[in-house]
Amino acid sequence: MDQIAGSLRRPRSAPGHICQIPPRSLGLSSMASQSTKNSNRRDQELAKNITPNDAPALASSFFKEGNVTPRRFEKEEALNVATSEPVLMFHPVDAVLKKHEMEMPLRQWIAHDVQESAINRGRIYQVTLQKASTLRKVTISYAIAKLLQHLSFNFQITQYSNSELQRLCCIDNFAVRVSNEQTELGWEVTGVDMINPPVHLQIMTEVYLSCNFFDVVSDEAFTGRTIMPNIISTYATPSDSGDSTAPNDESMLCHFLGLLLHGLFSGVDLVRIKPQALQVDERSYENEPLAKKSSERFCHVRGPDFSRSISVSGSVSKNSHGEEPVDVDLPCPLSTIGYSTSLSHVVTDLVDCGLGLFRSGGSYPSLEMAIADLCLLLEEPGRFLFEDFRLSQEGERIISCGKGNSRLYGRTAEAHLITDTFCRVASTGESEAFLIGGFSGTSLSPCRCGKTRLVQSVFEAVEAVDGLVVVQKFDEVSTLSPSSVVMSAFNELCLLVAKRSTPQELHAIYENLIVEFGANFHVLARALPNVLGMLSSCNASPFAKNETDDFNLANYSSLCFTLQRFMRVISSASRPIMLFLDDLQWADRRHIYTDDHAFCAAASLGLVHAVLSDMKGKSCMLFVGTYRDNEVGPDHIIFGFIKMLSQFNVPTSKIRLDGLTESDVNSMVSDAFRTLPRLCRSLSQVVFRKTNGNPYFVLEFLRSLVHRDIVKFCLRERRWKWDEAKVSAENITDNVLYLLSNKISGLSACTQTALKCASCFGIKIEKSIAQKLSCNSDYINLHSSLDDAVNGGFMDFDGTHYRFVHDKVREAAYDLINADFKDQFHFELGMAMHSSRVYKDSADALFVTIEQINHGVPSLLIGTSHQNAVAELNYEASVKSMHCANFTSAFDYIKAAVSLLSGDSWTTHYTVSLKYYLQLGKAAIPCGFMDEAKAALNKIIDGGKCLEDKIDAYFLLTAMQSCGTHTDEEIDMCVHVLRLLGEDIPTEGLELCQIVSAVNKTKQLIELESDEALLQMTKIRNNTRKIENIMKFYGHLGLISWFVTPKMHAFYMARFAHFCLKSQVGCKYLPSAFVAFGACLCNGLTNETFVGYRIGKIGLMILNRSELDMDEASKVYLAYYRELGVLFEPIQACVDMHRRGYEFGMQVGNTSLAGLHLCLAVHREIISGKKLQLLKAEIEFYLKLARQHSLTALKVLMQIYYRNVLTLIGEQLTCPVQQIQGTQYEEIDCTQEMMSSFFSGHFDRVNYLSKKWEASSDNTKLKVPIRVISVAFYTGLATTKLHRTKGFKSKQSLQHVWKKLLPVLVKAEEFSKWNFKHKASMLKAEYLSLTFKRDKAELEYECAVSSARLSKFIHEEGMACELAGMHYKHHGDKAKALELFCRAQKCYEAWGSQMKVDQMIVHQKDLL
How many whole angstroms separate alpha carbon 715 and alpha carbon 391? Predict the structure, then answer.
């Protein structure tokens, strides 16, 4: 031993090396450890080429330079990988030795600890001190074991004699360093030193507690400590230390370590017993199996008192020196003096390592395994170190898997995957989805290993980066609709934002929401009431007015759009959101929208999809959903949802959770029985084979074993014992519900009834409901029986709700109700709540009550005295649901109310029937149930007594769109109603002269009024409901006639404006009348265009002066900027107003109107030269939006624009454009193809399309101004191009350009130089160039280039440069032509047209 110490001894000032072990991962995310990884990256690079022989020199150099390298020896690296610890790191000694420490011999420290324990103190304080002392002793034990492992690893000390190893592991060979400052709980240990050889270990502890580690006595409060030991050796590693790869037998080292630890914990010297006390005849075991030898000899050695002594013989455990046996003591178990069974096992099994053939089966095969167990004692003292068995409840409590335990079994990789996804969302600011499938039963909350627990494990990491987590759960029989569950999640988000934000941040959110929603903030407040609570300090109440329009009710699309706009403000990269929805298999299956049945989405998941699929970068949310994949078929709505996410390019991750591995099951069994994992491995193997790793089966199987005493607690030994043969012979069912049903069947009748009642409400039931039901004679014991269910472990109680511990428990309780009488059971429960007037407590209580009653509607209510009352409750619930934007529930409630009406209700209950059927129509339309809506509204039209009672039904019928297109039926319906209201509207088409007469008559009437007089009409005078209805139907007629009957559009709008002027009624429909009529006067770019602009501008001013109505504002913007604004105002500004009109249309749920605004916005962007690649991505998103909302018109127009954009880029459309009937669509297609054909060089095609458009417009008599200008522009340029390129000399063609086409552009220039000056200049220049007026032509070319650049029409600037270049090329000025072609190329590159760039390159090459 002295030789060893001499060879290792070095001066204390020499540099040393440190074994640095950081804290074990406690399930924290990769995001939380990223900084650690970054800090170690440089050190890892430095250490790549270090060899063992370089260690001493490197240690010295690193000491001088202050550097660190993490590598040392290959064997060290292998060991560190096996123990999940990092490699050794070199540090200077002074870097870890502390100045504020004092050192004392270990024996002295033990004596002091014994003295402290002997002092009488208060019971609680005494228990706390004992726990502190035990934890310090385990810390010292761990440190000593690490020191011995260090020596064993670097030197072949296991080859030395027993006597040398015994001296090495002697208590007197160790000293303890403690802090100078003694706390109330004693001195904290800061280090452990081995005296000979001199090796030092600095202890750094990290305790994971929410409070002071020893402030509480409860075991559940202890979450453990992690030791980070730094081992400092003041000697150099010898180069001749032998073969480091040779296997070491550490049995005797472990044995002597066990003796040392026993002395450390017992605090008394061992009493030596003569070795002759043990006499065993080796020959009696010669022919026995080794297992039997070990077992029988183990029992013989220990006996009942376990205090006998043995002689460790060389024949039994002979060392390399073959020396004489060493007398040792076989100590008594530490459990006999009050220590935990786990700690006792660790020490006893260490001692057993030196018993040779007498060693027990549980003895340690290596020192490393003992260190792992000591580490477990430190990390989880509540389970392994501080036992507190409660025998009266042990059978149930012990199988709880440690309530409060945050451990995640077997799901670490999946947890990191979720965390990494959230990190990506937070860093990119773009939303993603993460879906987790798995069999039912794997998400039992106490198991800490299922789908739900997996997601919960990342919450801490999300909140660490200021993320917000919102959780909701779908329920199979919940009284809330699935869409309400999603809305509740976003509603809770408001409160969470308020809680986690500063007043300054909340004020910024408030301002952004006001900017986003404006005067319609009340729409958001109606959908998410908690937004007012979130902004309570910002005085948001004045914006939260509760006003609704009877006929412009928000629908499902508007709800989606509201959530999108809300999340644009709330979520960001600095405030990422995680939305977790559990049990998606119970999301509703209502198809709110479809596209040729290609895909569908539930109302609830559609809301989530709306946020995720918002335009890229608009929202920052990670959606996590879990579902039972064994309970969903291939046609389940989840897969439609996934397909929709894919079609909208939302990044989506999917994983599936299988059963646990054998190692994970061993961890579960260990935690359940509070037994070290290695001691219950054999039992875990049997359990794993029986359960296939299903965590729910594992727990239930263990509970059944405990219940039948196959696994039982031994009080004398204070540990769990089992018979593996009996466990192996046990059978386990694979039916979870059968297992639970049998268990519940053993409860009392009252408790079973309580569980059945609670199961009817879903996963939870409110305490207040249980209390009120207990007042009913049929449920008198409900409240107390629910408490019994809590005590039995079937439910939990959080103070306000009784909640089932797992879905499967609720399902088992629900299955106890006879399937044939379940509806009746629900109905009786609901009627008991009705008699107790539970529904009067709140809106939620109303929904809960009526959901139970409706199980018996109508079969159990028809003919009873409660029939009318229940019908009225359903109507009330429907109205409240509509107010909360819960449309599907509103529809279900009112449908139940209608089912309770009698067959002659229109005679006996006329008012009620009218009210119910109108509500049914209103509720069906937002859900997209058009057939149900039409049937209900037609009932009113057929059964109504007067037009006033029918008028609302008529308007709802006319406002319903079919697949996003308008039909002749709507026209006929509007005309029919207007005639019923007294308007003399012809039912057949009129001659052109009649239309012109009506237009002139109205124009003259307006010209008689001054602008101020027209603006004064905003004041309401002599207003009647009839007049408003007439104006409302005229307005709708104008909207649809523009598409369906363009010939009659001007007539209808003339009558509309004429009626407003005659009635002198100011209402919200007045601006639409003036703007629509003004747009009609612009037809064909006549001199009346300025008159139309004046009238339209007045209508726009009236709109701005009155209180904003989003529906009417969207219609006004459509008419004004479609016809007038595009002529007189910059086209880029028109794009912004069309986008605003789109937002208004979506907000009120008028998706058809919103789609028209999108189409016009994209068209204006195309003709104004927006970058083509941006347009391509934008149109692709709108095409998906059109499919999502079943907007056929939007889809067709976007396909037309998409084809045009691809052609301009130089790409080809792979799928054909869908055809749709209608002159307007044909003309739009024609003008778009003219543009792409011209830029492609197909000038003959342009002329052909021009003639086609001319014939179409002559037929309809509707010449949309912007189309007239576009056709004249491209036709004129195509004609001049044909003259230049093909040598046409037809003067008639040029005269056509000069006399017919050029005047159109000159007239347009009068309206807006910004939009049309460069176009007129280009056509003039081309004409002058071909007529040999070179100087004038060149001036016009320059004017066209500068005007296009000033107006930011980049594509037409390039066109002007190209045309000018062709002119100079024709006249032989190659230098000027080359310059212009280069400028054109740059413009086309900025525009994004590779096709035109290639053409310019060809032109330049021709000149070189």
Answer: 9
Element (H, E) at 942: helix 930-943
How far apart CA 264 and CA 186 sit, in angstroms, is 17
Identify the CA nearest to 1020 among candidates 1120, 1111, 1105, 1119.
1105
303 three-state secondary structure = coil
Q: In the predicted model, what is the mean pLDDT of residues 353-375?
A: 86
Looking up tokens 């039409």, which residue turns up? 934
How far is 712 from 723, CA to CA, in rounded Å? 10
Question: Across residues 641-660, what is the average pLDDT?
Answer: 89
pLDDT tens for residues 616-636? 668 899 999 999 888 888 888
Q: CA–CA separation, 8 vs 1273, rounded Å? A: 97
Alpha helix (H) ranges present in 501-585? 503-517, 521-527, 530-534, 556-570
3-state secondary structure 966-1002: CCHHHHHHHHHHHHHCCCCCCCCCCCHHHHHHHHHHH
In angstroms, the first-to-last Cα distance of the chain is: 94
Q: How far is CA 1022 from CA 1025, 1065, 1112, in A?
A: 10, 7, 21
How far apart (Å, rounded) are the C-alpha atoms in residues 818 and 809? Answer: 17
List the structure tokens of 851: 């959901």
Half-sphere exposure of 1017 (CA within 13 A, CB side): 28
Q: Which residues contact 503 (CB under 8 A, 6 or more apart)?
A: 537
Residue 1029, classed as helix, strand or coil, is helix
Cα–Cα dist 67/92, whole Å: 9
Note the pTM of the prediction, 2 decimals: 0.76
Per-residue pLDDT tens digits for 61-119: 332 333 332 223 233 333 332 333 333 333 333 444 456 778 889 998 888 888 777 77
Q: Which two tokens stand for residue 616?
A: 């890229």
Angstrom CA distances, 135 to 103, 108, 119, 592, stand at: 19, 18, 19, 61
Structure tokens at 506: 């909340």
Query: What average pLDDT does this structure show over 1388-1408?
Result: 93
Quick one: which H or E segment has residue 1374?
A: helix 1374-1391
402 torsion bin: left (phi>0), alpha (psi -120 to 50), beta (else): left
Cis upstream peptide for 858 (omega within 30°): yes
Tell me what pLDDT residue 837 has: 80
pLDDT digits (tens, 9 = 90+) for 261-307: 999 998 865 533 333 333 334 344 344 443 343 333 333 333 333 33
SS3 624: strand
Q: Which residue has the tokens 């609670």?
A: 758
Q: Could you tell me which of 483, 446, 491, 478 has the C-alpha nearest to residue 765? A: 478
Is there a contact between 862 and 854 (Cβ–Cβ < 8 Å)? no
Q: Tokens 């003694």 label which residue?
A: 182
**Residues sharing a CB contact under 8 Å with residue 319, sequence separation 6 or more, in sequence order:** 159, 160, 161, 162, 252
Which single residue is written with the structure tokens 């095609």? 1245
